[in-house]
Structure formats: structure tokens, C-alpha cells
Amino acid sequence: MLREIGDETTFASQPAFILPLNGQAGTEYLYVGDRWNGKNYHDSRYIFLPIRCPQRGRLVLEWAPEVGVDAGSGRIFGPK
């Protein structure tokens, strides 16, 4: 069954892709979205948000003003 995650505009972005991060702690996933600036394309941005799976079959995408990644473990640090 498909369910919406995030908010109604995917936090003002266009979904680009899901980035899997493989590390010693397992695999976690980052949402990557485009934020186009139609008045100045060179000022367009990406947003990166952690995708959590708190229980089987349920995904959660929440806004985080900052996201960090531990490259060795593959862990994502964002909202809890």
C-alpha cells in the first residue's frame, strides 16, 4: 500500500532520489530533493532528509534544518 510521507510539498522540493548509506551500523537512507529557483537557476539547491522506518511498513520523512552523516558507521543524524 502506498502512503504519503513528508508534507504536502515534500518540504518545498521535487523528489530527486533516495541515497542509501551503507556502513558498519547497517544501511540508512537519505531523501534528496531539488529546490529550483526559477529566477536564478544557479541559486537552486538540494535538500537532504533522513528517511526513518520506526516500524515495519511505515516510513517517516521529517524536516530537519541540519543533517549529519557519520561516514564510517553510515549513521544519519537528524530529527529524532
Describe the structure.
This protein is mostly beta strands and 80 residues long. The protein is 0% helix and 51% strand. The protein contains no helices and 6 strands. It has strands spanning 14-23, 26-35, 45-55, 58-61, 68-70, 75-77. It has a 4-stranded antiparallel beta sheet with strand order 1-2-3-4, with no helix packed on it. A hairpin with a 2-residue loop joins strand 3 (45-55) and strand 4 (58-61). The chain is globular, with a radius of gyration of 14 Å. It starts with 13 loop residues before the first strand and ends with a strand. The relative contact order is 0.26.
Please state the CA-atom Rg, rounded to the nearest Å: 14 Å
Lateral arrangement of strands in the main beta sheet: 1-2-3-4
Number of strands: 6
Shape: globular
Low-confidence stretches: none
Strand and helix order: EEEEEE
Share in helix: under 10%
Strand residue percentage: over 45%
Instruction: Report how far the terminal alpha carbons are from each other.
Output: 25 Å
Sum up the structure in keywords:
80 residues; 4-stranded antiparallel sheet; two-stranded antiparallel ribbon; globular; mainly beta; 6 strands
Summed up:
The protein has no helices and six strands. The chain has 80 residues and is an all-beta fold.
Helix and strand layout, with pairings?
Elements: E1 14-23, E2 26-35, E3 45-55, E4 58-61, E5 68-70, E6 75-77
Antiparallel strand pairs: 1-2, 2-3, 3-4, 5-6
